[in-house]
Amino acid sequence: METVTKLFKNNIRQYGMIIALVVIMLLFEVLTNGLLLKPINITNLILQNSYILVLAIGMVLVIITGHIDLSVGSIAAFVGAVAAIMMVDWQLPAWLAVIASLLVGALIGAWQGFWIAYVRIPAFIVTLAGMLLFRGLTMIVLEGQSISPFPGGFQKISSGFLPDVQFSGLGLVSIIVGIVLTIWYIINELRERASQRKYGFEVVSQGLFLLKLIVVAAVTNLFTFVLASYAGIPNILVLLFVLIVVYSFVMNRTVMGRHVYALGGNEKAAGLSGVKTKKVTFWVFVNMGTLAAVSGLIFAARLNAATPRAGTNFELDAIAACFIGGASASGGIGTVFGAIIGGLVMGVLNNGMSLIGLGIDWQQGIKGLVLLLAVAFDIYNKNKRAA
Q1: 144 vs 349: CA distance, rounded Å
Q2: Which residues does residue 147 pair with via DSSP β-bridges, in sequence order?
Q3: Staple 178 to which of 8, 10, 120, 221, CB 3.0 to 4.6 Å?
Q4: CB of 61 within 8 A of CB of 257?
């Protein structure tokens, strides 16, 4: 019991948000008479929130460094507009337009990163200017009108599914993917546990370790079973999974990730320790611009059009996802997994409230209250640890 208490205290924000997500899902499952967890709605949840989750992955790195980015929604809209012009008006191949769009996003990130890292203008001001600038450029490029439709291959980014083989109404590929992921996870956890023991680190008891493996395996296979019951695994889910794995690895296992955390924890101390703080800040914003471009492409593919109003409030949803998922407003704290959990909390709230017929006014108010409570919880824990 003492080990469980200690484990929970050390990971209170992460576990707290997972518990909150489960409670919210169960609450809306009851309130919607079982609609929330139906296979078709689970798939819609993934498709509806994919672009916000991509933004949250990049935003959490920005927040860990102690900055903020208010421009990502406008960048997403601008990149979507540029992609539409290249694919619809200029008839360029989709793959070439996608690569060019990602380069545009990276260049925008580099532009903002330069002012923040080397000119030392606060990120709030630079990205606020970027929000206005790229929203204006979107309207200029589109001339106030929508451009559509996109090529069918491009649309499949957001609306397509992995090829599957149906058997008794279930997608066999989805079931197999769930089993493979479970085996991969168990092997990784066993290796990690063996490594920790080898170097004398404290590990949880064998009983708790087995319970964790069973729970994760059950959730993974239940999730893929639900997807198999409808249309299988969405293409966008594969992209999200790759991004989560790659960015989690970078933040937890690489020098670059350690430098990002060090910069957010104490910039002066990080600089004295040999961290090239300006360079790290610059590349974090280049990365944010690139992921904003990915988000813009995903949204444009889902909407099958580039519109002047695309990306509105995307930055607020991404920032809220990071803070709800455990990132600290003062920097130095946050995880990619936490940002994803925070994004899912917001997504389930949006979806659940829409299913029970709550108006947009109530939805905005409730989401604002959830964000405030999450940040207040973070400050309370920080003060408690300091005391």
Answers
A1: 32
A2: 306
A3: 221
A4: no
pLDDT digits (tens, 9 = 90+) for 290-338: 999 999 999 999 999 999 999 888 998 999 999 888 888 888 888 999 9
One-letter amino acid of 234? P
Q: Among the residues of 199-335, which ranges form H helices?
A: 206-228, 235-253, 255-265, 267-272, 277-303, 314-324
Q: CATH classification of 1-160+237-384 is 2.60.220, yes or no?
A: no
Q: Which residue has the tokens 């964790």?
A: 212
257, 39 contact by CB (below 8 A): no
161 bridge partner residues: 234
Helix (H, G, I), strand (E, B) or coil at 170: strand
303, 295 contact by CB (below 8 A): no
**Where do the structural domains in the chain lie, given as residue ranges?**
1-160+237-384, 163-233
Is the Cα torsion angle 241, 351, 290, 61 positive or negative in sign? negative
Instruction: Give the model confidence (pLDDT) of 53-111 as tens digits.
Output: 999 999 999 999 999 999 999 999 999 999 999 999 999 999 999 999 999 999 999 99
Give yes or no for a contact between 377 and 324, defined as CB atoms under 8 angstroms apart: no
